[in-house]
Amino acid sequence: MKSPEWIGWASSFVLLATIARQVYTQWKTKSDVGVSRWLFVGQLTASTGFTIYSLLLRNWVYVFSNVALLATAVVGELIYLRNKRRAVIPERESARDASRAGVPPAPPRRWR
């Protein structure tokens, strides 16, 4: 392995560790607060394009990095959707309970 490749591999692992930590924190806290869905949509789009580009160049450091980033984007989006769904369920239950008590329902949450 050539010495410049080590820089690429090290940089890829730092980036992957950073994004993986964000996805793990989101999974662990079961919260979508402060996380934009567009982060994962943009990451999916960019990682797909960069993976194709890296394959065409036969640059295996970046093929690996971009495939791994694509996987974290998919996992992150799935966790985001799960957390979003879990946040809506308590709102529906509290709205149902409030309507039984004669309290007007709260306005719906807006998409971020």
Helix and strand layout, with pairings?
Layout: H1 3-29, H2 37-57, H3 60-100
Features of this protein?
112 residues; mainly alpha
Which whole number gives the mean pLDDT?
79
Order of helices and strands: HHH
Could you say which structural class the secondary elements and strand pairing correspond to? mainly alpha
What does the radius of gyration come to?
20 Å
Number of DSSP E strands? 0
Strand percentage lies at: under 5%
Largest β sheet strand count, sense and barrel closure: none
Helix proportion range: over 70%
Which term fits the overall shape?
elongated
Helix segment tally: 3
Write a structural description.
By secondary structure, the chain is mainly alpha-helical. The chain has a domain of 72 residues. The chain has 3 helices and no strands. Helix 1 packs parallel to helix 3 and helix 2 packs antiparallel against helix 3. It is elongated. The termini are far apart. The model has no long low-confidence stretch (mean pLDDT 79).
In short:
This protein is 79% helix and 0% strand. It has three helices and no strands.
